[in-house]
Amino acid sequence: MAKAKTLFFCQNCGFESPKWMGQCPACREWNTFAEEPAAAAPGRKATGAALSRKEAPHPQYLREISLDPSVRLDTGLEELNRVLGGGIMQGSLVLVGGDPGIGKSTLLLQVCRNLALAGEKVLYISGEESLQQIKLRADRMGEFTDSLLLLCETDLGAIREAILRTNPRVVIIDSIQTMYNEGVASAPGSVSQVRESTNILMQIAKGSGISIFIVGHVTKEGVVAGPRVLEHMVDTVLYFEGDRHASYRVLRGVKNRFGSTNEIGVFEMCQEGLREVKNPSEYMLEGKPQGASGSVVACTMEGTRPVLLEVQALVCQSSLAFPRRTAAGTDINRVNLLLAVLEKRAGLRLSAADVYVNIAGGIRMNEPALDLGIVLAVASSLRDVPVDDKVIAFGEVGLSGEVRSVSMAAQRVQEAAKLGFETVILPESCRKQAERVQGVRMAGVRTVREAVQMLCGR
Question: Which part of the chain is the RecA family profile domain (predicted)?
């Protein structure tokens, strides 16, 4: 009996090799190769001269292609619609990833409820939960209509038949790591199974015009488990972020063929499910201490939405040979760079001090406009001078100590005025475009030293 042919697959990127290798030549990761049976090559249709003229695809002129605005489907959640680019695109394949217990299944079940209430036929397929478990979660959310169909199955062949037989508008697959294809001789969740299962679902979505949402497990590094090619195959990749022990959740798009990848959606976990946070700035500033040093309100942009958040810093004398630097919610390397600029350009003694920086609320932001907020928070904590509660700051800081301009300054100032802030510390180069906002005093600064002197008075 002939021995079944096997190949070695990289569990990180899906690279194939006939023999085991210690380091993957594609993604340069170590010890990621696993041996799996090779998938049988599918039968090919006749090509070339064997194809009749009727069967051959005909190219279309670009001007002949019309765009129908009705191809987008409203999810009933404005935050999700924003991240998707305006709604669910017909025939799209969307991957939703996130930590266990973060609320992926809850979010998609709420979408199913909203679509079902709007009269759309929806099919929810689960490979992890029983029908009774899904029913228990659904009862907490409210009333459902008969437009929602449930199926507990992991066989892709049976799932494909169910989708084509019921012909729903939207399909939910929870999760892709539990699905298996009988034509692939490997365990569910393996590189081959995930790749082939996603390929089948992509063919269904594009061929039938059915929108499909795929739930994906994540690894300890926070990326979707399985081959990296999975993210390349789908149209949209969404990550659900946040601390599972906290109430807030942030939905972030990292890939979107139908919209921007800079938008975020903010939700709050409640007893009945996820509740949309219409004004994340107000939510992020809840509980801000009054008259405390080391606390500054900064403004960042997520797509077209300005978000105000509190930047906290704690500077204390260090007893260590190498002072500690810690950052939560932002890049530690960026914080170290800003501390060096403060010491060199503003004359602040930080080399013998422990510095802790935190973005309150647990949200993670890396926009350069946060630089000025971090700088002022560190200076405020070092000199123990509280920052006025009605002051907000934003701007990028360069290595020469200059405060550089940032985009959408007027929108940032408008958001600050809406929440009652009276003074905005911003780059001098942005002052002119933001002056048309009424009721807010503009304090333009050119250098870090000038900003620290304005804050601390010396």
Answer: 69-218
